[in-house]
Model the fold of this input.
Amino acid sequence: MRELIPWLRLILQRRGRLVVGAALLFATLTSGIALLALSGWFLTETALVGLLFAAGVQAYINLYVPGSGIRFFAVSRTVSRYLERLYNHNTVLRLLTDIRVALFNSMARAGHRERGQNTGAHWLSRLTADVDALDTVYLRVIAPATLAAFVTLLVVSLAWVIFNGLVALMLLSVLSLAFFTATLSVYRRTRSLSGQLSDRQERLRSEVIEHLEGFAELTAAGRTGKHSGRLMRHSLALSHQQAMIDGQVGWHGAAVQFLINLSAVIALWVGFDLFQQDRVSGPVLVLLPIVLLGLGEAYTMLPEAFGKLGGTISAARRLNEDIVPAPEHPSVAHPALHPEDKNQPLVATDISVGYPGYAPVLTHFSMRIQAGERLGIVGVSGCGKSSLADTFAGVISPLAGTLTTLPCAYLTQATVLFEDSVKANLLLGNPNATDAELWRVLELVDLAKRFAHEEDGLDTWLGNGGSRLSGGEGRRLVLARVLLSKAHLVILDEPFTGVDSVTRNHIVPQIDRWLESRAVISLGHGPEALLPSGRTLHLS
Done:
């Protein structure tokens, strides 16, 4: 289970909410058991008093205190159940948010090469299904199992007090076996099946997404039916495997219920002997078996949760494979922003550029950028431009040498727009920017008129991935987002992809003036794709 350790550390950062949620679970469980126990005691007591009355024996019973207790536990069980569901589900949603943010930050720290090893379908599965699988860790595994064990010890202690130590020991043995059956036993029996099912579901989910994305090509090739049939066969195999897991969970659940009922029978059998010896009263004799039957609520949910634990661990393992720790390279320095550093935003000394496990694309590379300097880097595809830009921006670390940079604004080759408004997309570059600044950068990239004519202005919705914009408009909007940054170093990788030459010639002088005091590194296939540069470096 060591695969869960990183996520448990993340979950435990919200200890306060976990404790409150566990307390609400405990209140719900104990209220239900107390309601059953007190009701059983009360019914038995009233029945015995009624028999005494029928036999002509004078007897009395206090109806008000037990009745008040029954009403109290009935209300407390309902209220605590409602609060527990509301609070704990809110906690789980917060925990899933924490996990997704941690995973997304890890993905953001990874280089393009590492992220490119998985398809978009795989990343979608990681951020949705795999993360959702982790909600079983707290709400269905840790908290219920802990509370079931704790309440079991309370019930055994109660048996010790009202019966004797032998009864308590017998009940402890049976209930321990029930707890083992509901947790570790079902986990061992389903661990492999559940893990395989999770892996196969992940592959099938990715294949379905790829099937939908490539539906046009499959149709053109006449392979739609065969590919759909293949997916259906995989789906049927998964259903069969799921049925096997459900069968194991069901048998274990039945065994747990049998053991709980057996404990109640043992308590009733031994208690009846004590009743004949006048060591316990009739109502007390009934109380303990009913309490034991009430434990079924604590144990019922455990087999299903532990039956899925193997899949949860499998999902955690896949997520761990995609977690890229923050780089810790002593050769790479990222100093704080000090006035004396502004004159040299970037200094590279004898660095090697590339990705771990691959041959470096550049070696023994040294360069120094002064404040306000313009550097152009040109070269054909595959010569290492983007790898060099990633290194300068801190996305990847140099394989060797020393690199010192100030925080930078980085425009990558990929045009990424979120399904949100123009304003929300721009504010990613500078959350403190005013509306006036947003309109100003839109003017710089010749998009101000485009959105001024929209009814919602800056609140215009861009659609899925900026689908309401053309490729050139989307590229310019992302460029505007980078221009909003106050960073002293700006790196632009293929800044004018998809932008026609007329528009490019119009916006280049404006952008150049906007970045006048800052160091700018622009990269492209030719000088015409760059900002005006004082010097140009050709990579081959």
